[in-house]
Task: inverse folding
């Protein structure tokens, strides 16, 4: 089944939101490259649907009721731009990485996030083959109380780091992301 380009862009975010393996296979090219995976667990950098499923699992592990309402989609040839909001409730550790290593672990705050993003998708053979984004991460970190740091969130982050809880959270989140990606091969 062929999906028109703007619907293809929206379908990619349904995959991230739901973890739908069949939809991932339908919309994500085997050679897909996600430039944004540099702050995510290593499994998110795997090409193709497996990396996309891992990325969704990583985000859903931190934000329950994760959603990506799309406000606009535009396509021109083999490129689609999607403007959307990322929304959810911070109920799990939000773990960010740098060069595959733990960079930051934000303990669950129970706070809601709602911030804008613009994504550029390159298409090949009717599937997404490349993804990059412009996100307002500062707004998200502000909504979580990380930037500027609220005393309560800052102290919890320090306590998590000092007790090893941040490292354990990074391991658990990485394992969950890897399971989501490898589950595709066993489906």
Result:
């Amino acid at each position: 089944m062929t999906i028109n380009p703007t619907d293809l862009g929206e379908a990619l975010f349904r995959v991230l939101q739901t973890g739908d393996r069949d939809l991932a296979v339908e919309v994500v090219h085997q050679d897909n490259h996600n430039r944004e995976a540099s702050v995510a667990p290593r499994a998110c950098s795997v090409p193709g649907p497996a990396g996309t499923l891992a990325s969704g699992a990583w985000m859903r592990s931190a934000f329950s009721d994760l959603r990506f309402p799309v406000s606009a989609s535009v396509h021109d040839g083999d490129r689609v731009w999607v403007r959307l909001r990322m929304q959810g409730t911070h109920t799990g550790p939000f773990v960010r990485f740098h060069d595959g290593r733990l960079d930051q672990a934000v303990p669950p705050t129970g706070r809601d996030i709602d911030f804008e993003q613009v994504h550029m998708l390159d298409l090949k053979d009717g599937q997404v083959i490349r993804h990059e984004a412009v996100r307002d991460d500062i707004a998200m970190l502000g909504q979580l109380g990380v930037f500027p740091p609220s005393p309560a969130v800052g102290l919890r982050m320090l306590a998590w780091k000092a007790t090893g809880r941040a490292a354990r959270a990074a391991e658990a989140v990485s394992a969950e992301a890897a399971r989501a990606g490898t589950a595709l091969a066993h489906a």
